[in-house]
Amino acid sequence: MSFTAPRRFDRRQVLIGLAVTQVAATSKPQPKPSPKTPVVTVLGDSITAGLGVAAKDAMPAQLQQALSRMNVLAQVRAAGVPGDTSSAGLARVNASVASDTTLCVVALGGNDLLQGIEPRATKANLRAILQSLRNRGIGVMLVGIGAPPLLGVVYARDFNALYRDLAREFAVPLYPNILAGVGGSRQFMQGDGIHPNAAGAKVIGDRLAPLVAEALRATPTVTAVR
After folding, report:
1. Active site (catalytic) residues
2. How far apart are CA 202 and CA 37, in angstroms?
3. Residue 26 in domain
4. Per-residue pLDDT reduced to its tens digit, 189-211
């Protein structure tokens, strides 16, 4: 049996080889980072909070599901507080709507209506909310609620008009009446006649979803599920 002494390594060649290997590794295409999931925060009152229904059946969860069925990737956050008026919403807008929010769905005014608050006061509060969100670079969608004529023709006219006026002023999407197709129906409302049940919340979520998706498409972070 013969024995061959191991060949000495040329240190220079080894270093050159390592350098070539490292360059080749770094030159490989790097995977692109996944886009950030847009956040939709729903700022509202008891309807947004899902009073009387399970969280999974509340309007924000129904909106989340509707967007998923449309292949729109988004994270919906519920930021509703039962009893909140537009004034209360204004007081907490910065605390309730996180800075990573892409789009804020502002759904306030129902309790103003129930309390007979003057439309001009509601309008001023909502305007301040929209301006605050705009100043923070957060997109906005406005959701109103229809005032019935039994509250007084003038009051109902002025109240309903405030949402249209603000949507036009800020150039934001508007869903005029959150209870459209739901209010007054035993099939979709709870026994109090004020809050939607799970079926009603689904109707609202399904109807809001196309407008929310359209608003999200205007932002650079929206991503469709493939």
Report:
1. 46, 192, 195
2. 23
3. no
4. 999 999 999 999 999 999 999 99
Burial degree of 104 (CB within 10 A; 0-12, 13-18, 19+): buried
Query: What six digits make up the tokens of 199?
Result: 């079926």
Number of structural domains found in the chain: 1
Dist. CA 171–CA 55, nearest whole Å = 32
Q: Is residue 4 situated within a structural domain?
A: no
Angle at which helices 153-170 and 119-135 cross, to 10°: 10
List the structure tokens of 117. 């608050």
Indicate which CATH number applies to the domain containing 182: 3.40.50.1110
End-to-end CA distance of the chain: 65
d(CA 18, CA 10): 13
- The C-alpha atoms of residue 98 and residue 123 are separated, in whole angstroms, by 23
Distance CA 172, CA 126 (A): 13
Structural domain of 134: 39-224
Q: In whole angstroms, what is the distance from residue 192 CA to residue 74 CA?
A: 32
- Would residue 58 count as lying in a domain? yes
pTM higher than the cut 0.85 = no
Q: Which amino acid is at 136?
A: R
What are 132-185's pLDDT values in tens digits?
999 999 999 999 999 999 999 999 999 999 999 999 999 999 999 999 999 999
> Is residue 29 a part of any domain in this protein?
no
How many CA atoms within 13 Å lie on the side-chain side of 102? 22
- pLDDT of residue 23 exceeding 90, the answer is no
36 pLDDT band, cuts 50/70/90, is: confident
